[in-house]
Amino acid sequence: MTDAQTYDRVQTALQDLKFLTAPDSLDALAQQAATEHWTYLAFLDHLVQAELAARREQAIERNIRRARFPFIKTLDQFDFACQPSINEAQVRDLATVRFVAHGENVLLLGPPGVGKSHLAVALGMAAILQGKTVAFYTVADLLDQLAKADRLTSRLKSLARPDVLILDEMGYFPIDKRAAQFFFQLVAQRYLKGSIILTSNKSYGEWGSIFSDTVLAAAILDRLLHTSTTINIRGQSYRLREKRQAGIFTDLPDLSSSAQKE
Ligand code: ADP
Ligand code: MG
């Protein structure tokens, strides 16, 4: 077989094998290998490493799409100076994503606008960058889906899959008996296996009222909190901060005490 024929065959094989970068990088790498006298092994190493990097990047993009974040925010975009009630070192430690390996949970509590969803998404993004899968739901959306679903088992199955399940805005809506039982099953099913990041404007003491069943609320909290980190955020809404600074809304009530009653 001539060199040209071999080249064509390799190109076709690389494409059939669904290599992402190798078909395009083959020419340049082969040339570089020749001029720099690479060993066969060094050439192969370059080719497969570039391919692996491209595949990792593609998987990350896919996992970001599948997470269905309402917005993309990272920890770098979070201004810790504005929120002194947050222990920055603790959040940065969570962003190492070690908690996911052990199926530990993260609970972000605090009044509206203090950055709970931002931090939940940022931790989710950190997890994806480490190769984990994430699914984001607002509790309202999840309840809506539950109300429409006639078989909860298939719903539960799909919620068991992601490495990290983000449940945003627990506490804005009351949760009826059927949904409370579902939540219990969800939390029990993921217990020590899959992480949950949950945000809420309610303190734990108020959970009984969200679930309209204090026994079930206690059982859910028991599993959720055993191996978990709670971040209590106090302070003023970041959303309204600039407006406050501009002198608008000076008479707004301070909501910062509502979630801190534990
Ligand atoms: P919450 O979920 O607690 O109601 P969000 O996370 O939605 O609040 O925050 C409201 C808006 O303010 C978002 O756009 C978020 O990115 C921004 N934000 C909140 N806190 C901070 C912060 N400390 N640094 C930078 N942006 C912040
Ligand atoms: Mg929010």
Structural class: alpha/beta
Give Rg in angstroms. 24 Å
The end-to-end span amounts to 78 Å
CATH architectural category of the largest domain:
3-Layer(aba) Sandwich
The level-1 CATH class of the largest domain: Alpha Beta
Query: What proportion strand?
Result: 5-15%
Fraction of residues in helix: 40-55%
Mean pLDDT: 91
Global shape? elongated
Order of helices and strands: HHHHHEHEHHEHEHHEH
What's the structural domain tally?
2
Main sheet?
A: 5 strands, parallel
What small molecules accompany the polymer chains? adenosine-5'-diphosphate, magnesium ion
How is the secondary structure organized here?
Layout lengths: L2 H14 L5 H14 L4 H28 L20 H7 L3 H4 L3 E5 L6 H14 L4 E5 H10 L3 H9 L3 E7 L6 H14 L4 E6 L6 H5 L2 H12 L2 E5 L5 H8 L17
Parallel strand pairs: 1-4, 1-5, 2-3, 3-4
Helix pairs in contact: 2-3, 3-6, 8-9, 9-11
This protein binds adenosine-5'-diphosphate (ADP) and magnesium ion.
Brief rundown of the structure:
The chain is α/β, with parallel strands linked by helices and 262 residues long.
Walkthrough of the structure:
The chain is an alpha/beta fold and 262 residues long. The protein folds into two domains: 3-65, no CATH class; 68-257, P-loop containing nucleotide triphosphate hydrolases (Rossmann fold, 3-Layer(aba) Sandwich). The chain contains twelve helices and five strands. Strands 2-3-4-1-5 form a five-stranded parallel sheet. The longest helix has 28 residues, at 40-67. The radius of gyration is 24 Å and the shape is elongated. The model is unreliable at 256-262 (pLDDT under 50). The structure holds adenosine-5'-diphosphate (ADP) and magnesium ion (MG).
